[in-house]
Write a structure and sequence with these properties.
Glutaredoxin; 490 residues; Rossmann fold; 21 strands; four-stranded mixed β-sheet; alpha/beta
């Protein structure tokens, strides 16, 4: 039997060339498709989302701001990556970068990357222990930064507890887009507005970091790009400065002199903007501002509101009812926590002239609330804040613009202790921006609702669940195994 001298090749040379050519051609086609897809994606970018929970759609107002930007903006996210809202902030910033390529993003985790964190601290002069979880916008040396805590709006939610009433801060809305767009606007218009904080009548201090101080109040206005300066009592030749964009009178406890009242009245008549915060300390002694407000259509009642069904401490009132006005338009899902607030009512005048100031009641206690001192008034809703706008007559221009006033029956809720509670800070932001006529910070960019998946259990329910997981389920498995063993044994 003869053996073949040579084994035959598996493929002929021609077939090998055809296979090689086919592989090269297929590879070239795949690369061509990849290049074309990337080219089309770069020229005609359109993003789609698999879930509504992952969708971050920028508002038309934000897109118009981004499309008008030509300067480079460096965004530093000085954040703990484990923070629950870090993914939301990062996703939003990515949308900003996708809309404008002049925006660059750098993430520095100050917990896990201390070396880079020290560089950021040195670059932006961060020295306070509270300088963390920051979003820093840097446009050619002009820097704006915002704390991550201010990006989320909270409300108070009662936690199931069989022994005592317990509350927690529940996140309900994310205001990142509104704040980031405001920061970009401020970088394009770097000259801040000027606010004056009147002193000399028992008002809190902007430097006081105690519970009732206004250090955080001043910081919140600084974040809204309002430079705040103390203003001495308006006596002698001293008047409200002409560069005053916003006058703030918070918690006056003593009576104003007549000359001061005349100057404040003149300031308002000229179209000035006033944020006026009363509290229970002025119940015994009128400040003199009350008659001026009555001429503007607002009455501050000499009493405080109690609401046993909407309270945490017994002295506070949790406000969940809002009027129809731009100041509170974005606060519908939130609540405010006020302390012994005074009613602030609109004065209704029959046959009021068309030129009369427009007064809108902003926030209300619940229908079960009562007055602390006047028990003859039945339970009802009480307005706790009001907004006033006076438009000039046709053909007449006021020296300071359209007069605007916001009067609130409490000042403590914006002090250091309470300003972070519920939506108090958000109310201050909205009030300041409305008074300064900055609709781009009020309209069109609303907070995004936060969908929270949380299981709230009482201590008894937790105990029952623990026995179920540690005892009943394993015991059930063992019992079924024993039954199977009995059946097989038979």
């Amino acid at each position: 039997m003869s053996n073949p001298s040579k084994s035959r090749p598996s493929f002929s040379p021609a077939r090998r060339w055809r296979i090689g050519f086919d592989m090269v051609l297929r590879t070239a086609l795949v690369l061509a498709v990849i290049v074309m897809v990337n080219f089309i994606g770069a020229k005609f970018s359109h993003r789609f989302y698999l879930s509504s929970q992952t969708r971050v759609a920028l508002s038309p107002r934000t897109l118009s701001v981004l499309h008008s930007m030509t300067n480079s903006v460096k965004v530093t996210l000085y954040f703990d990556r484990k923070d629950e809202f870090f993914p939301d902030i990062m996703a939003l910033l990515n949308e900003y970068r996708a809309a404008n390529k002049n925006i660059s993003i750098r993430v520095v985790d100050f917990v896990r990357d201390p070396g880079e964190a020290e560089k950021v601290k040195a670059q932006y002069k961060l020295g306070s222990a509270n300088d963390k979880d920051l979003v820093i916008f840097d446009c050619e040396g002009r820097v704006k930064m915002m704390g991550g805590e201010a990006l989320t709006q909270y409300t108070l939610e009662q936690v199931p507890n069989e022994k005592e009433r317990e509350f927690r801060r529940k996140p309900v809305a994310f205001s990142g887009e509104k704040i980031f767009t405001a920061m970009l606007l401020s970088l394009q218009n770097p000259q801040p507005l000027k606010g004056y904080f009147l002193q000399g009548h028992g008002e809190p201090s902007l430097e006081d970091n105690g519970n009732f101080g206004y250090l955080k109040f001043g910081a919140a206005l600084e974040q809204n790009y309002i430079t705040l300066t103390n203003l001495e009592p308006l006596v002698g030749d001293r008047a409200v400065p002409m560069d005053c964009n916003l006058l703030i009178i918070a918690a006056p406890a003593s009576k104003f002199e007549e000359v001061e009242l005349q100057k404040i009245d003149q300031y308002l008549t000229q179209g000035g903007r006033l944020l006026l915060l009363f509290n229970y300390a002025s119940l015994e002694h009128a400040t003199g501002l009350e008659p001026i407000l009555q001429r503007w259509g607002v009455n501050v009642v000499a009493d405080t509101v109690k609401d046993p069904e909407s309270t945490v401490t017994g002295q506070d009132v949790v406000v969940r009812q809002f009027g129809q006005h731009p100041v509170v338009g974005s606060l519908g899902q939130l609540s405010l926590q006020m302390v012994l607030p005074r009613p602030v009512e609109k004065i209704t005048v029959a046959n009021a002239p068309a030129s009369a100031p427009q007064v809108t009641e902003l926030i209300f206690s619940s229908p079960t609330s009562t007055l602390a001192n006047d028990r003859s008034v039945p339970p009802r809703r009480h307005p706790l804040a009001a907004a006033v706008e006076q438009k000039p007559a046709a053909g007449v221009a006021n020296a300071r613009g359209n007069g605007r006033i916001i009067v609130v029956g409490d000042s403590i809720f914006l002090g250091n202790y309470y300003i972070e509670g519920a939506g108090n800070r958000d109310f201050l932001n909205s009030a300041a921006n409305w008074l300064l006529d900055r609709p781009q910070l009020l309209e069109g960019i609303g907070p995004k609702p936060v969908t929270e998946f949380r299981l709230l259990l009482t201590q008894q329910q937790k105990k029952q669940l623990r026995w179920l997981l540690l005892g009943a389920l394993p015991g059930g498995v063992l019992f079924l195994g024993w039954l199977v063993w009995l059946v097989r044994r038979k």
